[in-house]
Design brief:
By secondary structure, the protein is of the alpha+beta class. The protein contains six helices and eight strands; from the N terminus they run ββαααβββαβαββα. The protein has helices spanning about 20-25, 30-35, 45-55, 110-125, 140-150, 180-185; strands at about 5, 10-15, 65-75, 80-90, 95-105, 130-140, 155-165, 170-180. α1 crosses α3 (about 45-55). The longest helix has 15 residues, at about 110-125. The model has no long low-confidence stretch (mean pLDDT about 95).
C-alpha cells in the first residue's frame, strides 16, 4: 500500500489506537460533526469499532473505507493528530475513490486539509493507479466546496435535495478529478 505518505508538514498514515482519544474528541465537536455522518455523541466504542475494521496492509475492498491520520511533528510531544482523511473505494467502478477530510477545530484554516488531500490524491493516482477521485459535500458547507475547487477538482453537479441527512433533505455538490486531468495539471 506504500504508507505512510509525507508532505511538507504532515505524516499521513493509518489511524491507530494511539490517536483514538484525540480522534473522538474532535468528532464530538458540534461544528465538526455538522456535515459529517456521525453526531456529537461519537464515542470511544465507535472509534474502536472503526479501528477494528481498518485494513492493515492494503486498500479496503470495494465499498469499504479507511481513515488516514494526519499528524504533525511536535518538538516536545512527538506526533500530534490534527485530523483525518477518509478514503473510500467505489463499490461498482474500478480504480475510483472517494475522499473526505475532517480537521480538529484548532487546526482548521491553516492549509492542512489542502496539503493532506493533495498528497493523498497524488498517492492514489501515482501509486494506486486511480482513474478517478471524487469528493462530495453538503451544499451549505462552503469550506469543503472551496477546498474541492482549490484542489483542482471539477464540479460535476448538484444533487438537489437528494440526501436525507440528519432529519432533513439536503443538496450535495459533487466534484471529481480524472487521472488525465491530474497528469495535465500545472506542476
Amino acid at each position: 500500500m506504500t504508507l505512510p505518505i509525507r508532505s511538507s508538514r504532515l505524516l499521513i498514515r493509518m489511524l491507530s489506537a494511539g490517536e483514538r482519544d484525540a480522534f473522538v474528541a474532535y468528532r464530538r465537536v458540534a461544528d465538526v460533526a455538522r456535515y459529517q455522518t456521525w453526531t456529537t455523541d461519537y464515542s470511544a466504542a465507535d472509534a474502536d469499532a472503526l479501528l477494528a475494521d481498518q485494513p492493515r496492509a492494503h486498500l479496503p475492498t470495494p465499498g469499504g473505507w479507511m481513515q488516514l491520520a494526519l499528524l504533525i511533528s511536535e518538538p516536545v510531544d512527538g506526533e500530534l493528530l490534527v485530523g483525518d482523511v477518509a478514503v473510500g473505494v467505489d463499490a461498482a467502478q474500478p480504480a475510483t475513490y472517494e475522499l473526505g477530510v475532517t480537521l480538529a477545530p484548532a487546526h482548521q484554516g491553516q492549509g492542512y486539509a489542502q496539503e493532506a488531500l493533495t498528497a493523498v490524491i497524488a498517492w492514489l493516482m501515482g501509486v494506486q493507479g486511480a482513474h478517478r477521485v471524487v469528493m462530495q459535500g453538503d451544499a451549505r458547507n462552503d469550506a469543503v466546496l472551496r477546498l474541492a475547487r482549490r484542489l483542482g477538482l471539477r464540479h460535476e453537479g448538484s444533487v438537489l435535495e437528494g440526501d436525507w441527512f440528519k432529519g432533513e433533505w439536503t443538496t450535495l455538490e459533487r466534484f471529481a478529478l480524472l487521472r488525465r486531468e491530474w497528469e495535465a495539471r500545472p506542476r
